[in-house]
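The protein record quoted in full:

***
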Amino acid sequence: MSPPRAGRPSNLASNPPDPRAVVDVSALLGELEDRFELARKRAGTEDLALELAGRDVLIRFAGRAMRDALGPAFGHLVRTDGAGDPSIQIDVWDGETSGVEPPSIRWEATKLDKLGVVPSRSEDRLYAMCDVAYGAITVVDPGRHFGLFQVPSASGVPWYERAAPLRVALNHLLFSTGASLVHAGAVGDERGGALLVGQGGSGKSTLAVAAAIEGLGFAGDDYVAITLDDGPAAHSVHSTAKLTERSLELLPSLGVARRRLPVDEKHVIQIAEGHPSAIRRRLPLTAIVSPRITEGTANWRRISGAEGLRSLAPSTMLQLPATGAGGLSMMASLARSVPSYSLELGDDPRRSVSALQEILSDAA
C-alpha cells in the first residue's frame, strides 16, 4: 500500500525557488511523487520487498534500470514470502529511462551544507538532500516512513551509491521506526558480534572482509543498522564491501581482478556472491571494536565506553547527521551496554582476525 500523499504544489516547476531562500520541501515532495507515478506508468514498476532490521521495506523502482543499479546490494534481504504493507517505502526513478525529469529546481551547491542538505522550512518536518556530483535528489517524510530518490540517469549512478544505496533515505526512515543507521561494520560468530567503528581509513572494511574469509559472519563493512530492544544488535543493510588497492594486496585469496581505478574510487566486492555463507542479517552485539592500521603484530586492549563512543559517534554524525541527539543517545546507550576495545591491526589480516576472535571471547 502506498503511503498517504504529500501536499500538492501549485507552481514549483514553472517558478523554482530562489536558491538563496529555503525550499518548500512539502511541495517538492508532492511534485516528485506525481512525477514518479508518471515514470512508472511509462517504464513499468519493479518492486523489491526487503526485511531490514526486522522492518518490512518496500522499494518501488520505475523501470528496470535503477533496480539493476541499486538492487544487488540488497539481494540478501529480499523477501520471498509475499510481505504485507511495508513499514518503510522508498520510490526510485531516473529521468533517462522513464523520460520524466524532476522539477527544475535551481540547486546551487554553495547554498547546501557539505552533505547536500537543502535549507527547508521548519514547519515542513521533511528533509531534502541533493548530491550535486550527479544530480541525485532525496526527499524524506519520516512521519509517513516514506522517501523518494531520483537521479537524471541510471548509467550515471556512481560507484559509491551502487555500493551503499539509499543510505541517506534509510538513515531517516530507520530512525523513525526505532532503529539507527551507523557508520560501522559488524562481524561475529556464536559468541556474539563486534561493531567495527572508526573514521574512514581505520581498517574497518579490510578487517570485516578478512573476518568473512576466515569464517566469521558478516553483516556489513561500512554501514549497519543498530537496535537496542531485545538486546543490542547489528543488522545488515548492504551485502557489499569497499576495498582499496592496499586491502586487495592484503587479501589475495579474494581473487579480485586488479584494475586501475580513478582517484578516490574503491573496489566494490559483493560478499553475498563470493562468501554467501558469511552473510548475517542480524548479529547480537557484544563488543565495540575500534581498529587502527599499524605495522607489526596485531594487539588489542580494553578501553572505556567513552573511548568506544568517540570512535563511533563523530564519524556517524558527520556522515549521517539527520538523527541528531536521538541517534547520539542510541549510540551512547550501546556504548554503556557492551565493552569497548582497541585493536591494532598489524600487517597480517589473519592475525587481526585471530585478535578479533580473542576480543569476542573476552566479551562473551
